[in-house]
């Protein structure tokens, strides 16, 4: 299991205002941002990414819009800075929300540029984006996945075509002269990742052979990974752990209490991220018809309800660290504790090749974050790196 | 009762009721709601032909259909296929937008146009909202905007059968498909409204907060010879909230030479 550190680069000073407003996203006015404070936070977060490179971890960046939970508005922009500050780490965009991007060729251009800048260290996540990203982008939620797949195909073709220009006359995108400069170091294109929450996404990713990732719920991850493996088998190949990725909050400390304390602070993200004004949580077309039927049948929902390993329902907005450990949302404790938990998780999931290490969140301060990264990188990452590794022949 | 007809390759579910002068009714974004009294009331006077728009109810939504102009041509084809003459075209809310798109193209088979709180046209400036953002408010807040009495519009979805819920979900998705961006309007339609050359009656709920009566007044001014009537104690769906009054208004318009 490989470790990719990530942080949403939160603007937690506005969380309280967001909770009071009933939404940390979309409708929380940016008057709640003090740009001087944001400046200091961004610099600090970028230092923490740079530390990961020294400590031998890989790096992941994501993006969200109009939110106090995440100040990263552009993955390529953030990774461009990080690429110059790092030497070894692989740089994962997870990802570019291509169903919300009006210009897929621009996405291909930016990742090619980043791949050249970083000397071939980029990995490219092409993601659907969360439901509440629809409003800030004002993209049409109807036919979203058709637009996603057309953008996906166009981006891969743009990255891998070297005798262009070519023309593209699609349903959603039209270009007459696609010919990106520079072209990526990694050919035909950097490794591609997808994200999702469903078995259907697992199957779709398997058909492309992409890495598939999900987050914060073992109950969601397992069926998706199983679907991926089953579909790969149908297609005549065996999907290894290197195709599966999972994002979780991790708090590690010299003592169990210290690890729990750190995890608890980072888990503030899990408790606030789902606090979104109702109309932006399910724009029509974003979810499937059967999913919508289930929601209409259930009536009004409260919080983010997830099931733990024993089938108990947990409201993530109110959950304790222990609750969140039972849903595989959080791994916490001493390095030994965390290693054992991840080893057990890996076995239950049937092999997960990538841990997306949510190692900073909101109120975890710089000193704690540095300690969390260092301890994990030195005491946990080398041990989980051995999980799923085929044994050398005797 | 529901019947099915294929028009331009699109399988349409159509409610048809009554006899006499043909009246093509184009339903709101919320759906057709044929079980509400409006349909029977209207069918006492006319042969009401009320298709479910592609993507709503049991009407198909082929991949290639994606714009309100597609719907306009589709229904003009339906009118031709049914050989309707001197028909009345009535559209409400989203259906009013579709009806206006038809009327600026071809009124040859119609003798009158009824527009009930139509969407579809932008009159105001870039910072003004002519049409309330129905997708940026909670369901409860939406009902408060759309109904004079929100209780009349509230539906307990937890008790409905799956097939009906699936139809609701499909309709909501289709509404987004046709109206998400630009939001519920065609920026160019305003400049073609002058082409409407048949008697036109606009009807508006006094309590409509999705599109206000003031917006209706701008529609009236943009269509040559059009008149505007206000239905008291009704919001955005006068046919559902005040069916008797609204049907009476329509028949007075249609049957007055």
Description of the structure:
Chain A is an alpha/beta fold. Chain A has a single domain, classed as Luciferase-like domain (TIM Barrel), CATH 3.20.20. Chain A is built from 14 helices and 13 strands. An 8-stranded parallel β-barrel of chain A has the order 1-2-3-4-7-8-9-13, surrounded by 7 helices. Chain A has a two-stranded antiparallel ribbon with strand order 5-6. Chain A has a two-stranded antiparallel ribbon with strand order 10-11. In chain A, helix 2 runs parallel beside helix 14, helix 3 packs parallel to helix 4 and helix 4 packs across helix 6. The model of chain A has no long low-confidence stretch (mean pLDDT 95). Chain B is of the alpha/beta class. Chain B has one domain: Alpha/Beta hydrolase fold, catalytic domain (Rossmann fold). Classes of the chains: A alpha/beta (394), B alpha/beta (257). At the A-B interface, helix 11 of A face helix 5 of B.
Pick out the low-confidence regions of chain B.
none
Widest beta sheet: strand line-up of chain B? 1-2-4-3-5-6-7-8
Radius of gyration of chain A: 20 Å
Q: Any low-confidence stretches of chain A, pLDDT <50, length ≥5? A: none
Number of domains of chain B: 1
CATH topology of chain B: Rossmann fold
CATH H-level superfamily of chain B: Alpha/Beta hydrolase fold, catalytic domain
CATH architecture grouping of chain A: Alpha-Beta Barrel
SSE order of chain B: EEEHEHEHEHHEHEHH
Structural class of chain A: alpha/beta
Largest sheet of chain B: 8 strands, mixed
End-to-end span of chain A in angstroms? 22 Å
- Separate helix tally of chain B: 8
Average pLDDT of chain A works out at 95
The CATH class label of chain A is Alpha Beta
CATH superfamily of chain A: Luciferase-like domain
Residue fraction in strands of chain B? 15-25%
- The helix-and-strand class of chain B reads alpha/beta
- Which fold does the CATH topology of chain A refer to? TIM Barrel
Residues in β-strands, percent of chain A:
15-25%
Quaternary structure classification? heterodimer
């Amino acid at each position: 299991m490989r470790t990719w550190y990530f942080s949403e680069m939160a603007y937690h000073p506005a969380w309280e205002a967001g909770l009071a407003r009933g939404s940390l996203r979309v409708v929380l006015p940016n008057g709640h941002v003090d740009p001087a404070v944001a400046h200091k936070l961004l610099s600090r977060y970028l230092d923490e990414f740079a530390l990961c490179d020294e400590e031998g971890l890989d790096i992941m960046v994501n993006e969200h819009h109009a939110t106090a939970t995440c100040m990263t508005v552009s993955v390529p922009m953030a990774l461009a800075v990080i690429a110059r500050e790092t030497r070894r780490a692989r740089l994962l965009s997870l990802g570019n929300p291509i169903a919300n991007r009006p210009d897929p060729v621009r996405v291909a251009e930016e990742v090619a540029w980043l791949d050249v800048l970083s000397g071939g260290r980029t990995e490219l996540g092409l993601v659907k984006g969360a439901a509440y990203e629809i409003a800030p982008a004002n993209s049409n939620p109807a036919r979203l996945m058709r637009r996603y797949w057309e953008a996906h195909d166009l981006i891969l073709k743009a990255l891998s075509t070297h005798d262009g220009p070519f023309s593209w006359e699609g349903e959603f995108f039209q270009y007459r002269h696609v010919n990106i400069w520079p072209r990526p170091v990694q050919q035909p294109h950097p490794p591609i990742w997808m994200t999702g929450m469903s078995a259907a996404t697992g199957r779709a990713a398997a058909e492309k052979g992409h890495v598939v990732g999900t987050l914060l719920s073992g109950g969601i991850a397992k069926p998706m990974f199983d679907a991926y493996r089953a579909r790969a088998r149908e297609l005549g190949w065996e999907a290894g752990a290197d195709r599966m990725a999972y994002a979780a909050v991790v708090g590690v400390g010299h003592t169990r209490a210290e690890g729990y304390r750190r995890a608890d602070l980072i888990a503030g993200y899990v408790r606030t991220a789902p606090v979104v004004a109702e109309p932006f949580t399910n724009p029509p077309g974003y979810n499937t018809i059967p999913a919508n039927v289930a929601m209409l049948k259930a009536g009004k929902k409260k919080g983010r309800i997830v099931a733990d390993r024993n089938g108990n329902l947990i409201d993530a907005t109110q959950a304790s660290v222990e609750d969140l450990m039972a849903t595989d949302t959080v791994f916490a404790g001493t390095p030994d504790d965390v290693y054992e938990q991840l080893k057990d998780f890996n076995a239950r999931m049937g092999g997960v090749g990538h841990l997306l290490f949510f190692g900073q969140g909101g109120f975890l301060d710089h000193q704690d974050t540095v300690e969390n990264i260092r301890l994990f990188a030195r005491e946990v990452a080398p041990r989980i790196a051995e999980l799923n590794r085929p044994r050398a022949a005797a | 009762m529901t019947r099915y007809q294929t028009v331009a390759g699109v399988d349409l579910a159509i409610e048809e009721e009554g006899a006499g002068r043909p009246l093509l009714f184009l339903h709101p974004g919320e759906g057709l709601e044929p079980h509400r009294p409006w349909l029977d009331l209207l069918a006492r006077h006319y042969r009401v032909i009320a298709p479910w728009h592609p993507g709503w109810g049991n009407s198909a939504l082929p991949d290639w259909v994606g714009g309100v102009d597609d719907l306009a041509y589709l229904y003009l084809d339906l009118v031709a296929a049914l050989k309707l003459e001197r028909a009345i075209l009535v559209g409400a809310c989203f259906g009013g937008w579709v009806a206006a798109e038809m009327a600026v193209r071809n009124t040859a088979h119609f003798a009158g146009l009824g527009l009930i709180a139509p969407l579809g046209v932008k009159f105001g400036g870039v910072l003004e909202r002519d049409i309330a953002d129905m997708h940026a408010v909670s369901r409860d807040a939406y009902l408060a905007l759309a109904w004079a009495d929100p209780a009349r519009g509230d539906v307990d979805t937890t008790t409905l059968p799956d097939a009906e819920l699936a139809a609701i979900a499909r309709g909501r998705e289709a509404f987004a498909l046709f109206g998400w961006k630009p939001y519920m309007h065609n920026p160019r339609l305003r400049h073609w409204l002058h082409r409407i050359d048949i008697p036109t009656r606009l009807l508006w709920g006094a309590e409509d907060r999705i599109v206000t009566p003031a917006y209706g007044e701008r529609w009236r001014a943009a269509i040559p010879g059009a008149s505007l009537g206000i239905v008291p104690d009704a919001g955005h769906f006068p046919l559902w909230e005040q069916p008797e009054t609204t049907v009476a208004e329509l028949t007075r318009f249609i049957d007055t030479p």
